[in-house]
Amino acid sequence: MPQKYDVATVLERETQVTIDKWYDRVEKEKDLVTIPLSRTDRCAHLPEMFRDLVSRLRNPLPLGTRALTSSAAHNHGTLRREQGYTPAMMVAESRMLQVSIFQTLQLHVEDTEPGVLLLYVMAIADEVDSQLAQAMSSYISEAKHDAQPVEA
Q: Which of 98, 90, 82, 77 shows the shortest CA–CA distance to 32?
């Protein structure tokens, strides 16, 4: 019988493949490619985001609990604002990330421990949404900062 892995291990092992699938999906989204970014710049936040996600799965929190602060999420929101993203673009990116993660899990469902996948899926959605909220918070904070008058 093949060895079974927890979802955190599967995602950790498949991080780059999942990022590649996400990037391919983003590059086909006409609204997102209006912001010309290199692959490196578009994906820069994802390795740390995946580390945060794997950590969350290995150290579970009750669903809906305010997740730990993610410097990657904060920096991502600030950077996307500087790059010219709109809030809707950030939400679209996040949605595509969840779809890419769930497709990775679907491809490896036979490799995962049975009976707990739904709990992990809920935790993944909760964490990705939490990171989006943190990114949006820094995005908005940066927008407020930009709107302040410049003193001579």
A: 90
